[in-house]
Amino acid sequence: TVKTRSNIAKKIEKDAPEAQYLAVNPDEITKLQEESKKIPYKREIVWRNVALFVALHFGAAIGLYQLIFEAKWQTVIFTFLLYVFGGFGITAGAHRLWSHKSYKATTPMRIFLMLLNNIALQNDVIEWARDHRCHHKWTDTDADPHNTTRGFFFAHMGWLLVRKHPQVKEQGAKLDMSDLLSDPVLVFQRKHYFPLVILSCFVLPTIIPVYFWGETAFIAFYTAATFRYCFTLHATWCINSAAHYFGYKPYDHSVSPVENVFTTIAAVGEGGHNFHHTFPQDYRTSEYSLKYNWTRVLIDVAATLGLVYDRKTVADEIIDRQVNNHGCEIQRGKSMM
Ligand code: ST9
Ligand code: ZN
Ligand code: ZN
């Protein structure tokens, strides 16, 4: 494990110096695990979040029923498109662009992605990226916000229902977030986050179907807003849970992330998670799933339009060497258990 991790660290340093904060340091991981045992930690449930998420799931159940039996076809299509484009705000925006710097985007494109990101309501990008950088740098330790060693449910959504482990805060404070704090688009989002997300996630998704094709406000609210929001959350959370549990590990046996085709489809192209943890600087986040990698298609189309540039990829020889030394050729290109 230790050898693999330091190799990856070296590769990241070489391929993408700006992604160095993600390089895993094996000595640090061991030290963290030792220190963690000494920190007194008592799980503290945040009942406000429990109540909100229970309510959201009741609302989503109503929305699913309406989507199947009552909604107009335009509302069904609209709900689907909101899920895909809100998803892009997470995958192409918060994840591949801002957390990993795996490509660069012009200001109009960053504004576009920030607006899409609001539809998904998953905390502002700066907070999302801070948690995500913690996740990559200290995977499966107490400094990882959704540490899978605390179980499937914790990694999936339980981590949003309890106070964070003190090590997340202590280690996370050491991350360099200056690149994001100096992006005016993200500063704007953070400053106006509450009105932006209420408008983008709930108000507009309700008003648009009513105004343009005469849907009832009741149905529009439960389908395009509530159900779609809840569904997008689970699709995202599955990357932290299912894509760390069920699948193959062609690139690195020593880590928990796997290749999982279901999450690739649900998360518009993000399920090549063993690849992604091994090569976090690669904007494709997977090697084989172009077919379902809608996020990559979006980024490539934006590049053709000149909105995106400097897309980073890892050379095939480096991938081959990694597979030979630390992964498994037979599992390559397979995505499920
Ligand atoms: C949501 C996010 O769902 C989901 C993210 C998933 C990530 C998946 C990644 C997978 C790869 C990409 C795939 C994408 C696929 C997309 C598919 C789409 C189709 N570092 O938070 P507080 C400090 S959000 C450093 O209150 P508590 C810091 O000082 C859902 N420091 O901690 C902070 O103050 P400030 C909607 C940190 O009290 C202070 O602690 N949102 C860090 O323990 C207090 O922070 C919600 O439900 C860090 N990492 O509470 C909200 N973290 O911020 C849920 C904290 O001022 N959140 N600090 O610097 C909460 O209510 C709370 O955060 C809490 C913890 C209860 C969970
Ligand atoms: Zn990532
Ligand atoms: Zn992960």
Set out the fold topology.
Blueprint: H1 2-15, H2 26-38, H3 47-69, H4 73-99, E1 104-105, H5 107-120, H6 125-137, H7 152-156, H8 166-172, H9 178-181, H10 184-191, H11 193-213, H12 217-240, H13 261-266, H14 273-278, H15 294-304, E2 308-309, H16 316-326
Antiparallel strand pairs: 1-2
The structure holds stearoyl-coenzyme A and zinc ion (2 copies).
One zinc ion binds next to helix 4 and helix 6.
Distinct ligand kinds: stearoyl-coenzyme A, zinc ion
Please report the number of helical segments.
16
Strands ordered across the widest β-sheet: 1-2
Classify the helix fraction into a percent range. Answer: 55-70%
Through-space gap between termini: 22 Å
Largest β-sheet summary: 2 strands, antiparallel
Extract low-pLDDT stretches. Answer: 16-21
Estimated structural class: mainly alpha
* Order of helical and strand elements: HHHHEHHHHHHHHHHHEH
Strand content: under 5%
Number of domains: 1
**Radius of gyration using CA atoms only:** 20 Å
Would you count the extended β strands for me?
2
Give average pLDDT, whole number.
91
Q: Looking at the structure, what is the overall shape?
A: globular
Give a description of the structure:
Strands 1-2 form a two-stranded antiparallel sheet. Helix 4 (73-99) crosses helix 6 (125-137) and helix 4 packs parallel to helix 12 (217-240). It has 16 helices and 2 strands. With 337 residues, the chain is mainly α. The protein binds stearoyl-coenzyme A and zinc ion (2 copies). Stearoyl-coenzyme A is lined by residues 46, 49, 87, 90-91, 95, 121-123, 128, 130-132, 134, 145, 160, 163-164, 168-169, 172-173, 232-233, 235-236, 239-240, 267-268, 270. This is CRE-FAT-6 protein. It comes from Caenorhabditis remanei (Caenorhabditis vulgaris). One of its GO terms (biological process) is unsaturated fatty acid biosynthetic process. Its cofactor is Fe(2+).
